[in-house]
Design a protein that fits this description.
By secondary structure, this protein is α/β, with parallel strands linked by helices. The protein has 13 helices and ten strands. The chain has helices at residues 4-7, 34-39, 61-74, 87-99, 114-122, 134-148, 158-164, 166-175, 190-202, 219-222, 244-254, 263-276, 287-297; strands at residues 30-32, 47-51, 79-83, 102-108, 126-130, 151-152, 181-185, 208-214, 257-261, 306-310. The strands form two sheets. The protein has a six-stranded mixed sheet, with helices on both faces. Strands 5-4-3-6 form a four-stranded parallel sheet, with helices on both faces.
Length: 339
């Protein structure tokens, strides 16, 4: 499979000297979602899901990591370091393993979903548990990296944003143009920043960027950092986004918005996507869909083509699925069983 860097080389900050570290990222599906459209009161064929859970480590982070890791290797880095709520750790550790680089991840103690932690462990990352939330972990990670000469591969690394912008190129290629609206989760805010950069580089009509944070972790909605962010959507449990300036610019320049949705709305969208559209994403991924349904219920339906970005696979956080009951029956061999 052609690497993401090879497909978009002319639009990325790489040269012929850049060693490509790739696991076959990108080229994720854009899935038509007619049941979601109908539930939102929109015409069939106008709503699509950009499912980033099909990337190699199961999240959109791989798009940026291939570029960041390739550039780190080119620069002769002795190792890479990141803070993470889980997905960045999984991606960084996998790409570091591929590159042959040491990887250290700073994780908020007890706040990382098991699926993501398992990935980092299996890829050989060195785990540093930090007392506090993601914001505390990122602060410590940036400090240690600066002192000891490691390359930080959080979204503070500009190459991460460069890689992630390629998702906008793929959406426009699949649709034949940019969508009219794009809904997506907002945590550390690098992804909304990257999508907007991608659409701007393409030129032509651009979508309204509709970002949604969890109500218990909504600093961009409140206009101030949240000291103790709380949400079931662990991937966006961030109280002081590093890329907030880029996110606010994307909102303002596109005529979009950054709103909030409750955990109940996130979980309802998460379940809906799995049971009605056959797409299993992690809870945080459903925040944008929850935002679409919230606006539709308020009579604020978007007009035109809508793309909802699902940032990670549901197996990233399997425990979340256990919140919902399922019908279970027992079959005794030899006895009649009626369906």
């Amino acid at each position: 499979m052609t690497s993401l860097i090879e497909r978009y080389r002319e639009r990325l900050p790489v040269t012929r000297r850049t060693p490509i570290v790739s696991l076959g990222e990108g080229a994720t599906p854009l899935i038509r979602a007619d049941r979601l459209a109908r539930t939102a009161g929109l015409p069939p064929g106008c709503v699509h899901l950009k499912f980033e859970g099909t990337n190699p480590t199961g999240s959109f982070k791989d798009r940026g990591m291939t570029v960041a890791m390739s550039k780190a290797l080119e620069a002769g880095a002795q190792g890479v370091l990141c803070a993470s709520t889980g997905n960045t750790a999984a991606s960084a550790s996998a790409y570091a393993a591929k590159a042959g680089l040491r990887c250290v991840v700073f994780l908020p103690s007890g706040a990382v979903a098991l699926g993501k932690l398992s990935q980092a462990l299996m890829h050989g990352a060195e785990i540093v548990e930090v007392a506090g939330n993601f914001d505390a972990a990122l602060k410590e990670a940036l400090k240690v990296a600066a002192e000891q000469g490691f390359t930080v591969v959080n979204s503070s690394n500009p190459y991460r944003i460069e890689g992630q912008k390629t998702a906008a190129f793929e959406v426009a290629e699949a649709l034949g143009r940019a969508p009219d609206y794009q809904f997506l989760p907002v945590g550390n805010a690098g992804n909304i920043t990257a999508y907007w950069r991608g659409y701007c580089e393409l030129g032509g009509p651009r979508p309204r960027m509709m970002g949604f944070q969890a109500a218990g972790a909504a600093p961009l909605v409140l206009g101030r950092p949240v000291r103790d962010p709380q949400t079931v959507a662990t991937a966006i449990r961030i109280g002081d986004p590093y890329s907030k300036a880029g996110a606010l610019a994307a909102r303002d320049e596109s005529g979009g918005m950054i709103g909030s949705v409750t955990d109940a709305q996130i979980l309802a969208a998460y379940r809906f996507l799995a049971r009605e559209e056959g797409v299993f994403c992690e809870p945080a991924s459903a925040a944008g869909v929850a935002g679409l349904l919230k606006l539709a219920a308020q009579g604020r339906k978007p007009k035109g083509t809508v793309v909802c970005v699902l940032t990670g696979h549901g197996l990233k956080d399997p425990a979340a699925a256990q919140r919902f009951p399922c019908r279970r029956r027992r079959l005794v061999p030899g006895r009649r069983f009626k369906l």
